[in-house]
UniProtKB/TrEMBL annotation:
<dbReference type="InterPro" id="IPR036866">
    <property type="entry name" value="RibonucZ/Hydroxyglut_hydro"/>
</dbReference>
<feature type="domain" description="Metallo-beta-lactamase">
    <location>
        <begin position="36"/>
        <end position="222"/>
    </location>
</feature>
<protein>
    <submittedName>
        <fullName>MBL fold metallo-hydrolase</fullName>
    </submittedName>
</protein>
<dbReference type="Pfam" id="PF12706">
    <property type="entry name" value="Lactamase_B_2"/>
</dbReference>
<dbReference type="InterPro" id="IPR001279">
    <property type="entry name" value="Metallo-B-lactamas"/>
</dbReference>
Length: 251
């Protein structure tokens, strides 16, 4: 099964406008180093995780239908592209009810409600749901967002785990770590060089999480322009992977 990391960056993307750090300078020169805002696509079930503000560009590249949309939390970089989905009449949205409130609001403001058969499925944290594929929405600490969470998805006997944006507190959350253990694929936050409590994972803590989860494959994403260069990150997290935009992962 193929999983595509559509966007590997954070809210500002790389290059961040007006920034002249090494990553931003390289990204302006070489498109390979650009990082659009975070998003994932699962072709098998036509599912999108987080409609990034770069969704129009992502759709242009993958040219695929979207039927299911999972939203980790209502930060701009994870939900801002929602109105781009208006080219699809039938979509099912999944997330915490507070996240879905923001999604509905965007639909109301920018898309309209009459002709679009968009359905919303609020998920409580820390329980399983069966939609033909199994879904579990686990809570993470990502302040000031009250309702931020990651997903476990069982698709065709494969266990996919996406942390979304998470603080390092996830390492001390024994129940969640136990639940996500043994994944076929872990996609984890690795925003910064060093963790920011209650906000994001740094490189060392991201690797610690990967070790605790023991997934068959681990890919780090949501990478800030101020982080190490792509090659340095690859070296530091070996044998785990560092996402670029449109990285395909076979599991
Ligand atoms: Zn984010
Ligand atoms: Zn920069
Ligand atoms: Zn966030």
């Amino acid at each position: 099964m193929d999983i595509i990391i559509l966007g590997s960056g954070v809210y500002s993307g790389t290059p961040k406008p007006l920034c002249s750090c090494e990553n931003c300078l390289r990204a302006r020169k070489f498109p390979l180093y650009r990082r659009t805002r975070f998003s994932i696509y699962i072709p098998e079930i036509k599912a999108l995780i987080d409609p990034s503000p770069d969704l129009h560009y992502h759709l242009g590249r993958i040219n695929e239908r979207i039927e299911h949309v999972f939203i980790t939390h209502a930060h701009f970089d994870h939900i801002g592209g929602l109105p781009e989905l208006q080219i699809f009449r039938h979509i099912k949205f999944y997330g915490h009810h507070k996240t879905l409130e923001a999604a509905r609001d965007l639909q109301k403001r920018f898309v309209g409600e009459s002709r679009w058969n968009w359905e919303y499925f609020p998920l409580e944290f820390n329980r399983w749901y069966d939609f033909g594929f199994m879904v579990y929405h686990f809570k993470v600490v990502h302040e000031p967002v009250e309702a931020a969470g990651g997903f476990i998805l069982w698709v065709k006997n494969k266990k996919l785990v996406i942390t979304g944006d998470t603080g390092p507190e996830i390492l001390d959350d024994a129940i969640t770590v136990e639940k996500i253990k043994g994944a076929d694929l872990l996609v984890a936050d690795m925003t910064h060089k060093h963790s920011i409590p209650k906000a994001h994972l740094g490189v060392d803590d991201a690797v610690k999480l990967a070790r605790a989860v023991g997934a068959k494959k681990t890919v780090f994403a949501h990478i800030n322009h101020t982080n190490y260069t792509h090659e340095e990150l690859e070296e530091r997290v070996k044998p785990h992977l560092v996402a670029r935009d449109f990285t395909h992962i076979l599991i």
